[in-house]
Amino acid sequence: MLLTNPWISSTAIKFPRPFLKPVFQSHAQKVPSGESSKSIEQLSALYSECVRAGVDRKSAVIALGGGVIGDLAGFLAASFLRGVQLIQIPTTLLAMVDSAVGGKTGINLKEGKNLVGAFHQPSLVLCDTDVLKTLPPRELTAGLAEVIKYGVIKDAPLFEYLEKNSDAIKTGSADALKHIIAQSCGIKAAVVSADEFEAGERAILNFGHTLAHAIEKVAGYGAYLHGEAVGIGMVYAARLSVREKGLNQKSADRIEALIARAGLPVQAPELDWAKLRAAIGVDKKNTGGLPRFVLAEKIGRVVFGCPVSEQTMKEVWYAGR
Ligand SMILES: NC(=O)c1ccc[n+]([C@@H]2O[C@H](COP(=O)([O-])OP(=O)(O)OC[C@H]3O[C@@H](n4cnc5c(N)ncnc54)[C@H](O)[C@@H]3O)[C@@H](O)[C@H]2O)c1
Ligand SMILES: [Zn+2]
Q1: Atom of ligand 1 nearest to the CA of 142
Q2: Where are the domains of the chain?
Q3: β partners of residue 119
Q4: Alpha-carbon gap, residue 118 to 139, rounded angstroms
Q5: In angstroms, rounded to a whole number, what is the distance separating the alpha carbons of residues 262 and 62?
Q6: Pairing between β-strand 85-90 and β-strand 60-65 as defined by DSSP bridges
Q7: CA distances (Å), 109 to each of 42, 106, 115, 172, 212, in order?
Q8: Which residues pair with 90 in a beta bridge?
Q9: What pLDDT, in 10s, does the model give residues 123-172?
Q10: Cβ pair 124, 87 in contact under 8 A
Q11: If you measure from the C-alpha of residue 231 to the centroid of ligand 2, how many angstroms do you get, rounded to a whole number?
């Protein structure tokens, strides 16, 4: 992560004046990789570092890293001196297509993930597909789950593009990566602009996530990468959608086939339904009673806030094992 000082602004970065070389001080601070860095302790150390480095209201925090760094540095920027500018330079596919865009920042508590945070929009998000060359293939694949999600919720042509180009994407074709990153960011930005603070429509971004969050919790955080759990969650949501929203079986099969082709898991037969159900029930996005799901009417169109009966949730889980 970089802390820049004193007068750099997003405008100065995006449009440097040709003969006026911007002069600014920068101060780099490394943060250990891993979810455990999204902690109060790490944040507190960064606040002290900001004070030592002389960060002021005209400074900007640059989050250079994956989603962990984006969320942590994002919350640092949101809260230090009641807010300084934030620039996101995501280095994982997941961060490029999801966490760097939309303004959600935050850290974890011992009691749960992302329990403390703020909405703080970045002034600039800069994605360079070259950095993905060093990303472990498992992380790249996990990021693809969110891209598939955008296809299902909003963009049938993106879904078809993924069906045709999944091999090129997995082998790191810059053109293919550029295309799917740009499309995904565009969709996320449009959804977030329409509902910045998650009053409604933004919930569609949770397609596949109700079960995914439960899987991550029940399997033990880290056993499944987030995107892997989302892969299983989207297959489950597609099956629920056939029962509840008239999604045709062929479309549900296409969703499952694309997820499998991307190299993501489509089921988790080792996990106990009773435990998953209990974990779904305490998802912080639930509003009491039956859990609400995002379900697909067709590829490219979903509805949110759909209650599903206990019986159907259970039957569909067992049908997919
Ligand atoms: N704010 C949001 O809207 C939002 C949305 C989705 C996820 N998230 C958060 O994002 C986090 C997950 O992000 P992530 O999947 O990017 O994980 P991550 O940040 O942990 O990165 C995954 C791993 O890849 C390494 N890495 C990063 N860039 C690399 C590169 N270019 N080459 C080689 N290795 C690299 C990291 O050091 C780490 O070990 C979670 O904490 C999640 O809660 C936030
Ligand atoms: Zn996600």
Answers
A1: 15
A2: 2-127, 137-319
A3: 104
A4: 26
A5: 31
A6: parallel
A7: 12, 10, 6, 36, 20
A8: 65
A9: 999 999 999 999 999 999 999 999 999 999 999 999 999 999 999 999 99
A10: yes
A11: 10
* CA 28-32-38 angle, 5° bins: 100
Q: Which ligand places an atom closest to the C-alpha of 125?
A: 1
- CA-based angle 104:109:112, to the nearest 5? 80
Q: Which of 120, 149, 213, 292 is catalytic?
A: 213
User: For 186-235, what is each residue's pLDDT tens digit?
Assistant: 999 999 999 888 788 999 999 999 999 999 999 998 899 999 999 999 99
CATH match of 2-127 with 3.40.50.1970: yes
Give the position, in ligand 1's atom list, of the atom nearest the Cα of 105: 1
pTM above 0.85, yes or no: yes
- The CATH number of 137-319 is 1.20.1090.10
Residue located nearest, by CA, to atom 3 of ligand 1: 99
Structure tokens given for 209? 């996530």
Strand-pair partners of 25: 5
Q: Whole-angstrom Cα distance, residue 192 to residue 270? A: 35
Q: Is residue 150 a contact partner of residue 187, using CB atoms and an 8 Å limit?
A: yes
At 140, list the tokens: 């790249």
Nearest residue to 6 (alpha-carbon basis) of 85, 103, 64: 85
CA distance 173 to 150: 20
Half-sphere exposure of 160 (CA within 13 A, CB side): 4
